[in-house]
Amino acid sequence: MAKLAINGGEPIRTKPFPTWPQLDPADIEAFESIYNSRRWGVGGTKVPEFAEQFATFQGAKYGVCVNSGTTALYVALKAAGVGPGDEVITTAYTFQATIVAILMTHAVPVFVDTAPDSFLIDATKVEDAITNKTKVILPVHIAGYPADLDTLVEIADKNDIKLIEDCAQAHGAEWRGKGVGSWGDFGCFSFQTSKNLCAGEGGIILTNDRELYERTWSIHNCGRTPPDAEFGNIEPFGTNFRMTEWQAAILLSRLTRLEAEANYRHMNMRWLDGWFGEIPGIKVTPLDPRATRGGCHGYKAILDSEEFEGISRNTFINAMRAEGIPLGYWYNTPMYRAAFLSSHLFGCDNDYNDVHCAETEKICQSGLALSQNVLLGNEEDMEDIIKSAAKIRRNVGELIERNT
Ligand SMILES: *Cc1c(COP(=O)(O)O)cnc(C)c1O
Q: Which residue has the CA at smallest separation from atom 2 of ligand 1?
């Protein structure tokens, strides 16, 4: 009988990994208190309270809660003054919402390659992409791995353009001891169900700048002036992107557990890096040494097919799944190939057919990912992941025949 589970052998594990979202009775109390208060939306206290607590948690001064991560990005771009024809420098290895938010302002996404063997924008290539139309640099801290914030902040300052961090996957991530989302002019987070801090839907924009805070607040709330305004009614344009009290109450409750969860996932990520690093053909992609904590929205690594006896990514993933490990990958198409781009560019005839980011294309083909709930597993769970990869490596001959 074949040894590998994919060939009919015994799988390493049949137990599920921790589910998400994790439940806690404290959340129900929070929810009930909102119900009984009759203040379910405007006029409640939980939204401003959460905005302040989460901003503090990430090391920023101000927070404006909104209804999604996508709208957080859109509002930040608007508050940064981005409009038709402006250019926004970003990465093609991201969730489509990053790009859609740019298109919603009628601006033009400009794609910079990812750094070699990383899933993150190559900060050393950003300056070459700056033109007189560039308004914003928009890096994405994919899976909670922070992009090179030192270099990005320096470039943004030097060229007088705004830096907006897409932190939708990076709750709790830290760069040199300080939270992501507090380094740029704006940090945008999502609280959609899959994210590491979640309430079904929701988002927040962080900033350290009083005037930008007021502009952001106004845009998210129908052009109104914030109750604690110092500058006054600076941006009459706005619409309704408000968060409800239900969401803020759940988020406040869950925020009390985020620090411990972030540290726990971080510990498991380090542990997996150590052991995966011993398996020929698996390339680990550790945090930048300046990133003092990963947001760990997922665990990331690379399959080096050549070093793994020519096994394709799909074959490896299927073999891991057969062993009981929910391995996958995230993005397999660079965003400059998104079909919606050409029909959503206004007043410019950018042709993305000629855009090629070699490293991004490589990572789209070779990236591996485990989702964040897996990183909440115990020691035995982590061992099963490594045992499965090691077993596949030992018996790779069985796979070569069925490789596709
Ligand atoms: C989830 C996500 C978003 C969008 O957040 P929503 O709350 O789903 O709108 C934006 N960018 C990235 C990188 C994301 O992962």
A: 168
| Ligand 1 center to 254 CA (angstroms) | 19
Task: Tell me if residue 136 falls in helix, strand or coil.
Answer: strand
- Per the DSSP assignment, residues forming a β-bridge with 370 are 299
What pLDDT, in 10s, does the model give residues 363-403?
Answer: 999 999 999 999 999 999 999 999 999 999 999 999 887 76
What's the rounded mean pLDDT across residues 222-228? 91
Reported pTM: 0.97
**Cβ atoms of residues 208 and 176 within 8 Å:** no
Q: pLDDT (tens digit, 9 = 90+) per residue, 259-278?
A: 999 999 999 999 999 999 99
Number of the ligand 1 atom closest to the C-alpha atom of 201: 7
Closest by CA to 313, choosing from 361, 257, 241, 365, is 365
In this model, does residue 224 exceed pLDDT 50?
yes
62 vs 338: CA distance, rounded Å = 34
Q: Supply the pLDDT for residue 237.
A: 85
The average pLDDT across 37-46 equals: 96
Q: 3-class SS at 367? A: strand
Ligand 1 site, residue 192, Cβ cutoff 6 A: yes
Residue 70: CB within 6 Å of ligand 1?
yes
For ligand 1, atom 1, the nearest C-alpha belongs to: 168
Average pLDDT of the chain to the nearest whole number: 96
Distance of CA 291 to the CA centre of its chain: 15
**pLDDT at 1 > cutoff 50:** no
SS3 184: coil
Spatial distance between the Cα atoms of 268 and 264, rounded to a whole number of angstroms: 6
Distance in Å, CA 268 to ligand 1 centroid: 24
Residue 226 to residues 202, 231, 237, 250: CA-CA distances in angstroms? 20, 9, 13, 24
Q: Which two tokens stand for residue 344?
A: 């959503």
Q: Tell me whether residue 234 is exposed, middle or buried, using C-beta atoms within 10 angstroms of its C-beta: 0 to 12, 13 to 18, 19 or more.
A: middle
Q: 232 C-alpha to center of ligand 1: Å?
A: 31
DSSP 165: E
> How close is the Cα of 267 to the center of ligand 1, in Å?
25
